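SAMPLE LOG
Freezer: B-3
Tube label: C17
Construct: single chain, 104 aa
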Amino acid sequence: MTKAKDIIKFFETLDHSKLELACEKLSKQDRDKLPDNVFALPGRRYPIHDIQHARVALSFISRYGSEEEKQKVRAAVKRKYPEIKVSGEMERQGANKSPVKAVA
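STRUCTURE (predicted):
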């Protein structure tokens, strides 16, 4: 039986830059044809023209992005694909709720 530690160790050894993603890779020509408004960040960074690329953008930004970039990409994905549960939503929603109920 595989342990969670073994799985985590395996994924840490992978070269993430060479992983095949679960979406069709964009060629430079196809990427150049995309309009600016389908990128989550300025400079034509993080294409979110389809739902698979939006998920990949969320995955990459969660690992490699600054807090400001994470907020911008998450907001762009949420606007375009409201059906995607954006990481951090539950934490932000729960942050405003006190676990202790007020007593009258």
